[in-house]
Design brief:
This protein is an alpha/beta fold. It contains five helices and ten strands, in the order E-H-E-H-E-E-H-E-E-E-E-E-H-H-E. The two termini are 27 Å apart.
Length: 194
């Protein structure tokens, strides 16, 4: 089973509903866990850890409420696991609404830089808003609960993973959309709302 751990703010219910609807349609039978930042602390690591502790799935997908999974997502994980049986944690194609790439496969070496999908780097890091991992990963590492939004909690988490000798991999078979107006490159083109 796949557990989707979503973090959201209480005032972003429309985004949360759309995120959950995409999971229900494109990953039926999956567990959906939502944790709200009720006090608007922005402590993403604490929220992610709280959601992950509630998860029952063998695969845990930690996402923000503005991530919309595509039809290929679940089968893409299965195909990726077939070709990478020892995988522990990955990213996948993360597209903006206009089809441009978001920070799906990147390195951080002083600053962020997108990588070509068929390459890797010792500086590869995950994007906090989308992490696909086996349950076992969270027995080894946890998110830093003191870091807030825009405090590079994803970079710190990625570096902890790599210090344990775990490779961060890229899954080219699964796709999600980042439904965030700040990253729309073509005004007027957006995700249809309910």
């Amino acid at each position: 089973m796949i557990s989707f751990c979503i973090i959201s703010r209480p005032n972003e219910l429309e985004k949360l509903d759309l995120c959950s609807a995409h999971i229900e349609v494109n990953a039926p039978g999956s567990e959906i866990i939502t944790v709200f930042d009720k006090n608007n602390t922005g402590k993403l690591g604490k929220l992610r850890n709280e959601a992950i502790k509630q998860a029952n799935g063998d695969i845990i997908v930690s996402i923000d409420n503005d991530i919309l999974i595509h039809r290929d997502f679940v089968n893409g994980i299965k195909e990726f696991a077939y070709y990478n049986p020892d995988w522990m944690v990955s990213s996948c194609r993360l597209l903006n609404v206009d089809g441009s790439r978001h920070w799906d496969w990147k390195e951080h070496h002083g600053s962020d830089k997108l990588l070509e999908y068929n390459t890797t780097s010792e500086y590869v890091v995950l994007t906090g808003g989308l992490v696909i991992a086996k349950r076992e990963l969270y027995k080894i590492v946890a998110w830093n609960e003191s870091l807030k939004f825009y405090q590079q909690e994803d970079i710190e988490f990625s570096n902890k993973i790599k210090k344990h000798g775990i490779k961060i991999l890229f899954n080219p078979y699964s796709t999600v959309t980042h439904n965030d107006e700040r990253y729309y490159h073509h005004p007027g083109k957006g995700v249809l709302r309910k």
